[in-house]
Amino acid sequence: MATAITLVGLGVRTVLLEAAPGPRWKPGESLPPSINPILTRLGLNAAVRRAALPSYGVSSRWGSPELIERDFLFGVGGVGWRIDRLAFESELANAARQTGVEWHWGTRVADCVRVGSHGWALHASTAGGLRRWTARVVVDASGRAARVARLLGARRLRYDRLLGSLSYLPSPPAQTLPAQTVSARSLPAADPGSATVVEAVPGGWWYSLGLPSRQLVVAFLTDADLLAETLRRPWRFAELPLAYAPTTSERLRATGCPQPWPAPRIRPAYVGRLGSVAGPDWLAVGEAAVCFDPLSSYGVEAALGAGFYAGAAISEQLGGRPDALSGYAELIDHTFAQYLIACHDRYATERRWPDSTFWRRRHRLGAMALP
């Protein structure tokens, strides 16, 4: 969506083929303050506010049992955001269509083949049957599946086995304060779910956040081969690994939700990338290009930023600059390499469980790609 919005703004006719019949739920509801400049650049400030509530900070137990709080309220980037992801997807789709993107729901690409020396033919299944489109440049924005890039021969690399077991529970109501007493510092107390909570435990780490939908999202992140059966089936409080996560434990107790809780959603969360994120007249954006560990809360921000730069690169290539797409690829490669170092450094600070398989793996994260 970011790529399409950018391209239309640069005067390039853009068609977006979306396999789903409409906006759909995706995990990822926390946006850091650093996302605000790209939201402004893409003209999405109002759209995000309609789908979000402020996030005032991050509380973490990481590297020690002490709770560390990082306050967004007085930072230079402003507040972060906790989004209703389905509403967020809808708002961005509406924004893209309003800018002039030609949008097609329920359109699943079946193949992508070269037409002449510059250009592509795409065949896609629709409710009305098979349709054909032609394009000078193709953008793969199909998420971790990297559907088009893999059709073109690109290889997917994975750096770990991380996945998340996510549960969405009713959250307790926010405290109502008299209007005359509300201040910047009283807001987090009035809405205790407004901060992201991250807590490391021997076999992984917990994440939780209160959402605009009056739900509490709670996720346990670990490797696929380490996820206990108790976290794959409907959760029961007494069976969860919460001994080192008192804040997450308190949040779960406060929901008052009858047990067992609804069956969790199991979703991939591994770090990965395409071997090549661009080629002759094509490129990949978002998680089709690179995937980030959710610890960074960087996925949506990176996708929007990459989308903007991808749109600019495509416009430059169409304007006669032949190395524009390779320049985009170099930018993504450099950004991802820096991210791997930062991610390793973040995990390296947690040394309380040296015999844990999960943490031993994290301490060598980025050393090699998995098959």
UniProtKB/TrEMBL annotation:
SUPFAM superfamilies: FAD/NAD(P)-binding domain
InterPro entries in alphabetical order: FAD/NAD-bd_sf, Flavin-dep_Halogenase_NPB
Lineage top rank: taxon: Bacteria
Gene3D superfamilies: 3.30.9.100, FAD/NAD(P)-binding domain
Family, similarity comment: Belongs to the flavin-dependent halogenase family. Bacterial tryptophan halogenase subfamily.
Name by which UniProt lists this protein: Oxidoreductase
